[in-house]
């Protein structure tokens, strides 16, 4: 189901308009294009804009760590849309996601439940509360692993699944 069908056009437009108004008032060193990316199951909101260069991405990320731009934006959204069935989570360095309650990464676990796996391991880098990996990382149906990079993920997989090869490069 598409997000617009689930939320309805009125709530979706209220959400988009709130985000555009909020971002219009933000003073940042740089702003680029694609501030709201409409995806099938969610909206991705980027105060700097998804069209930023890799260097601008790093610059915004450092500023965000100091000034908590995304954290404050999400807090404003949580206040404005309390009780509307929306969730907000950090994603990567420059954005956060908005999606209906229950449409986070745990959604796949409902499908996997019928497969009767003994253990489901999840590896993610945004595993603290508010991060886009937190819910599935913390779910009792998974064994969550917090990782920092693809290389870290490979190393952790070797340690868990192939301990005899854990020290290979």
TrEMBL record:
Its cofactor is Mg(2+). It is an enzyme of class 5 (isomerase). It holds the Pfam family PMM. Keywords: Cytoplasm, Isomerase, Magnesium, Metal-binding. Mg(2+) binds at residues 125, 137, 139, 142. The keyword Isomerase applies. GO terms for molecular function: metal ion binding; phosphomannomutase activity. Pathway: Nucleotide-sugar biosynthesis; GDP-alpha-D-mannose biosynthesis; alpha-D-mannose 1-phosphate from D-fructose 6-phosphate: step 2/2. Coiled coil: none annotated. Signal peptide: none annotated. Involved in the synthesis of the GDP-mannose and dolichol-phosphate-mannose required for a number of critical mannosyl transfer reactions. This is Phosphomannomutase. It comes from Ceuthmochares aereus. The gene is Pmm1.
